[in-house]
Amino acid sequence: MHGADEEEEATAAVRGPRVSVASTQTDSMAGQIPRLSKVNLFTLFSLWMELFPSTEQRKKSQVKKSGLVVVKNMTIIGLHCSSTDLHAGQIALIKHGSKLKNCDLYFSRKPCSTCLKMIVNAGVNRISYWPADPEISLQNEASNPVTTGDAKLDAKAVERLKSNSRARVCVLLQPLVCYMVQFIEETSTKLDFIQKIAKSQPDFNTDFYTACRQERIKEYESLFLISNEETHKQILMTIGLENLCENPYFSNLRQNMKDLVLVLATVAASVPVFGCFGFYSSEPQPTNETCHQGLPQEIARHCMVQARLLAYRTEDHKTGVGAIIWAEEKSRGCDGTGAMYFVGCGYNAFPVGSEYADFPHMDDKQKDREIRKFRYIIHAEQNALTFRCREIKPDERSMIFVTKCPCDECVPLIKGAGIKQIYAGDIDAGKKKADISYMKFGELEGVSKFTWQLNPCHPNAVEFHDPTMRENGVQKTKSIDDQQHQHKKLCLGHY
């Protein structure tokens, strides 16, 4: 990921109250837009990887599914989630081996002793975990004392491994900068993903986004938060975080957790499951070439949300863009992501090592061309390619997810790198804006383009509002469950 030389101080919640020293790749951006810290970005990625779509039938188990982000020199080199057979930590050992030395690992749950002993042995630098229910769950019913006892024994083993290892095993959470959640919510409604749906609405509104966001908040709070404070304190004490159970540390910790879940839900809702909207190609695809066949919609959406999260690391005060590259092996791997594996990611920013004030940051057509940012900003796609951790193989299906249409500067790079598919919004396609042009995207050949749109197979299939659902003259949005039902019913078989 872009910004490999950045050193960012994080809050170690296990050591005291919320004190955060936030820095950026360049010098301070005081007075600029709110920005996610890298530590919080890695934490959000770990939570989101826990939700990676899977076709596996998971048995009811004491072991919770978990997500994992592997970071080296503040750059993501691996995104993983547990499978039915392997925990996330075990998968990291298989995928990276000795390359884990000096890496930082971000888990969506505190890893079990089986994973921790191998990770520590690999020489990792730091292990951060989400301070709620651990991988070996402590939230079993009281009627099952055997499994609860096993979980407590494992927690004790984890603590012993933690206290006798060189690796720092801790909780890293930073408070969000002021107005971050509000900024994310406001910018989300202006994106291609929301605007295209809104324009199909009779009243041109974004009520559906609000409904979707509330559904996601409810869902993710049940997954990642512990509603009962006393239960949360008991779990914290069992996993060795008893010093966080006193206020103000406990209230600060819960607020940080709640804020991050709110961010995740808000960003996830910005690429909604809604009707027959999704990532589709408007061009006929060769049926005999697997590399040109589109991904399942749920996976494409999941990866685009990752790109959306990256966009909130931008140094461009006007337009944040995120990009992430995934590829697919010939056969299914051991990871919970199936055959898919992470290649690289980035966001738009000024060159590494520069100071924010060194370059212009204006794109106004009325301004002198010398003080426009376009010639100086490194684009998200360019950073994703520059800081990739894996090579792009010509015989494998590779795909890049970009939060907006790639410009004329990036399209040749994407094709030249051998990427097989582009997933993006396309409102800017075919347009020229000030110094930046999007003309080449529509003319691109040899690379499949999947843009956010209504399924071409069902251009008039879904009526997004039920005319009977009116109350006091105000039109109401159908529930998310209804939308998902329509989506599956009408679009099944066209993924």
Structural features:
single chain; 495 residues; alpha/beta; Cytidine Deaminase, domain 2; six-stranded mixed β-sheet; five-stranded mixed β-sheet; 14 helices; globular
Polypeptide structure, described:
With 495 residues, this protein is an alpha/beta fold. It is 33% helix and 14% strand. The strands form 4 sheets. It has a 6-stranded mixed beta sheet with strand order 6-13-10-9-7-8, with helices on both faces. Helix 5 runs parallel beside helix 9 (249-269). The radius of gyration is 23 Å and the shape is globular. The chain starts with 37 loop residues before the first helix and ends with a helix. It comes from Gallus gallus (Chicken).
Present the secondary structure layout.
Elements: H1 38-50, E1 67-72, E2 75-81, H2 88-96, E3 104-107, H3 113-121, E4 126-129, H4 145-163, E5 168-170, H5 180-188, H6 192-199, H7 207-224, H8 229-238, H9 249-269, E6 277-280, H10 297-311, E7 322-328, E8 340-347, H11 380-386, E9 397-402, H12 411-416, E10 421-424, E11 432-433, E12 436-437, H13 439-443, E13 448-454, E14 470-471, E15 474-475, H14 480-491
Parallel strand pairs: 3-4, 4-5, 9-10, 10-13
Antiparallel strand pairs: 1-2, 1-3, 6-13, 7-8, 7-9, 11-12, 14-15
Helix pairs in contact: 1-9, 1-10, 2-3, 3-4, 5-9, 7-9
